């Protein structure tokens, strides 16, 4: 039997204090639909509960991963309406575990140190076009996707048209999103669902985070291996078919 969720008892000031945000931020998120409305109690005072706290924590994690408010809105809209505070906490644990490293802000000098080479203005423009980096609003530094920097720098010296690289990136992103969507659905239905059945246990959040962390490298390795084999087979088939000696 599941434990009944506690009644909402937090005022907006208490919610903001517990979540580490301002009251103005809570009200702003509410107007954007990121937070469900409070339960109205005596004297028309709104009360908030654990679900609001967990949702605020999830929003904070998504922002930490670099998502805009519009993207967060779409993300939250896709979640089931009946998620409990416990479900949201597990969801946040998964986001924190699987999300890529957040972009780092670097000066031009720090960027070149990370790249391991001097970068011309043309190199910087190409890396920007590949979404490896982006100038900060004041133009004095760069937001760098560290996970893509090494690949982006390597591509600078590849004798392939820049448009071809961008087209290949688009193909990879499209199919990567499809694989990620289907894997997430499988994980949610076959792992997350059974794992969270029964009474809520605070330790389950950490257990789920640990399970997710162990699964991530295995899934990534499986994807890389499957792609390498598929690409090798496709290239072999393409070049064999066009070999004039056959």
Give a brief rundown of this model:
This protein has 246 residues and is mainly α.
Task: Spell out the blueprint of helices and strands.
Layout: H1 12-19, H2 23-31, E1 39-40, E2 46-47, H3 50-64, H4 69-77, H5 85-98, E3 104-106, H6 108-115, H7 121-129, E4 133-135, E5 142-144, H8 146-156, H9 162-196, H10 202-242
Antiparallel strand pairs: 1-2, 3-5, 4-5
Helix pairs in contact: 1-2, 3-5, 5-10
Describe the overall structure.
The structure is a single chain. With 246 residues, this protein is mainly α. The protein contains ten helices and five strands. The chain folds into two domains: 12-99 and 165-242, Multidrug-efflux Transporter Regulator, Chain: A, Domain 2 (Orthogonal Bundle); 104-159. The protein has helices at 12-19, 23-31, 50-64, 69-77, 85-98, 108-115, 121-129, 146-156, 162-196, 202-242; strands spanning 39-40, 46-47, 104-106, 133-135, 142-144. The strands form two sheets. A three-stranded antiparallel β-sheet has the order 3-5-4. The protein has a two-stranded antiparallel ribbon with strand order 1-2. A hairpin with a 5-residue loop joins strand 1 and strand 2. Helix 1 packs across helix 2 (23-31) and helix 3 (50-64) runs parallel beside helix 5. The mean pLDDT is 78.
Distance between the termini: 69 Å
Radius of gyration of CA atoms, rounded to a whole number: 23 Å
Considering DSSP H and I runs of 4 or more, what fraction of the residues is helical?
Answer: 55-70%
Number of self-contained structural domains: 2
What CATH calls the topology of the largest domain is Multidrug-efflux Transporter Regulator, Chain: A, Domain 2
The average pLDDT score comes to 78
CATH class of the largest domain: Mainly Alpha
